[in-house]
Amino acid sequence: MGTTVEVMIEDFKFTPKEIRISVGDTIKWTNLDSEPHTATDNNDNFDSGTLAKGESFSMTF
């Protein structure tokens, strides 16, 4: 079982900007902006769909 790394979406950017993960780790994105956002892979491996303020999406790698 891996670790969970939390990434905040705020002011139209991700914080932290860069992370390092290992196989089995999970990233949890949480939208703190009042505007909806997504967490989407450039290669279409995952897509959070639209996240409203306060909503989260997790992906295990």
How would you characterize this protein structure?
The protein is an all-beta fold and 61 residues long. It has a single domain (4-60), classed as Immunoglobulin-like (Sandwich), CATH 2.60.40. It contains no helices and 4 strands. It has a 4-stranded mixed sheet, with no helix packed on it. A hairpin with a 2-residue loop joins strand 1 and strand 2 (13-15). It is globular. The model has no long low-confidence stretch (mean pLDDT 95).
Strand order in the sheet with the most strands: 2-1-3-4
Shape: globular
Overall helicity:
under 10%
Mean pLDDT: 95
Helix/strand/pairing category = mainly beta
Offer a quick outline of the entry.
With 61 residues, the chain is mainly β. The chain has no helices and four strands. The protein has strands at 4-10, 13-15, 26-31, 56-60.
Characteristics:
61 residues; mainly beta; Immunoglobulin-like; 4-stranded mixed β-sheet; 4 strands
Give me the secondary-structure topology.
Elements: E1 4-10, E2 13-15, E3 26-31, E4 56-60
Parallel strand pairs: 1-3
Antiparallel strand pairs: 1-2, 3-4
